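Summary for the steering committee. One of the milestones for this cycle was to obtain a three-dimensional model of the protein with pyridoxal-5'-phosphate bound, which we needed before selecting residues for the alanine scan. The sequence and ligand used are listed below.
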Amino acid sequence: MNDAVNGDASKTATGGPISEAAAGAILTIDLSAIRENYRRLNARLGGVRCAGVVKADGYGLGAGQVASALMKEGCDIFFVALLAEGIALRKAIGTGPEIYVLNGLPPGSEGEAVASGLRAVINSGAQLRAWRAAGHRVGQRLPAAIQVDSGMSRLGMAPPDVEAMAGDTAVFDGIGVRYVMSHLACADEPHHPANEQQRGAFERLRAMLPGALASLANSSGIFLGPPYHYDLARPGAALYGINPTPAEPNPMLPVVRLQAKVAQTRGVEKGAGIGYGHTYHAEGPLSLATISFGYADGWLRRSASAAWFEGTRLPFLGRVSMDSIILDISALPPGKLREGDLVELLGPSQSVDDAAGHAGTIGYEILASLGTRFHRRYVGG
Ligand SMILES: *Cc1c(COP(=O)(O)O)cnc(C)c1O
């Protein structure tokens, strides 16, 4: 992970880049690993097209950088959650690729979506009418995906609404229906009966809609096998190195490394109270290191509770503070860890999924929570 590119891509709240020297922590994002993960998913898909899901700023890793890397692998369809994300992504990657807005367009925002060349994911009859009207205003058949709710009860047209439209294809006049899509609720549990139920419901619903390509699988859905692949897969998590097959070894490459700087080291005597609330007292003399990294950086107070240095586990002691965490470094030889040294929070010693497991959460939440005050280093571009 060297030959850094785009080293200035991190932004403070005021928009300036964060230098490595000024930052408390360094987030390294391996774009070549993201590309390899895309190739591995493509191999699974055996010729079925594969989009890239880059919502939530590319699961916290930078939507523009991730999309640009995927484009070098031939990916030319992207999904974001929000219109605002689509507008930003369009600026970052230019006019070529298709960008779909998964959550649908808020009423009245259709013109902004058209101006940025974005495609609506239509989740309701009202959204359908608004998109048709927007197309009428600009004299174009605007492209869209129709999302149906096959059983997750989150987004998409409900079955009765689809049934009501069946046979009245005039409601789709003026819209270029490119995909009919739906989303799986339990794809990461391959034996969950909801998967086949959703696939059956998807088949039934799409037969009532205008003929179009179909899309059902997220990352884990790809691993459910060809019946779930249809014409377009929509992976996110697996691209970023999160295990799409949680019951089995991770078939993806790790993508992120997160390291925090040691701000200070100290020794304390037995009985010393450690951190806010003195929730921990030293049971003997201890060597401590305080790192410049805390819950303001997205490390939830309940997240994985150790950092690593050259293979040695350094447990957190006491509470996670906003900007700092106290580590027990007594397992290291005295003087080994010094101010300015880096300890690892995510990387070879502790995967995103490991960190999530300790916290009783999922890798998605670990990545999407990552803060904005890191020095971001993109490698393998
Ligand atoms: C987030 C999302 C995806 C990607 O899911 P992963 O599990 O991250 O692969 C695909 N489709 C829809 C509708 C989504 O909301």
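Key point for the committee: Residues 256-350 form a domain with the Lyase, Ornithine Decarboxylase; Chain A, domain 1 fold (CATH 2.40.37.10).
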